[in-house]
Amino acid sequence: MFIYKDIITIEDGKRGGKPRIRGMRITVEDILRWLASEMSVDDILNDFSELTRRYILTALEFSAMRQHRTIVAA
């Protein structure tokens, strides 16, 4: 598990308050959309040299953890 606070930031007024890679305008959503459009991690790294594999994996883990839900039986 990665430590999000070292990589992911959420700030009002920057990219609409969306989670983004610290110090960059690249959001977690941007990374997810690139992957969904069939860009590989290597494609993304080639197009955006400021990103690292760790940043991409952290964005994926951050997104997965935000989707985690506790199911309570009724």
Structural class: mainly alpha
Number of strands: 2
| Rg, alpha carbons | 13 Å
Spatial strand order of the main sheet:
1-2
The sequence of SSEs as H and E is EEHHH
Please bin the fraction of helical residues: 40-55%
Poorly predicted residue ranges:
none
- What does the main sheet amount to? 2 strands, antiparallel
Termini, distance in Å?
Answer: 31 Å
How confident overall, as mean pLDDT?
89
From the spread of the alpha carbons, the general shape counts as globular
**Number of helices in the DSSP assignment:** 3
Strand content: 5-15%
Question: What's the structural blueprint in terms of helices and strands?
Answer:
Layout: E1 8-9, E2 20-21, H1 28-36, H2 41-47, H3 53-67
Antiparallel strand pairs: 1-2
Helix pairs in contact: 1-3
Describe the structure.
With 74 residues, the chain is mainly alpha-helical. It is 42% helix and 5% strand. The protein contains three helices and two strands. The radius of gyration is 13 Å and the shape is globular.
Structure in a nutshell:
This protein has 74 residues and is mainly α.
List its salient traits.
mainly alpha, 2 strands, single chain, two-stranded antiparallel sheet, 3 helices, globular, 74 residues
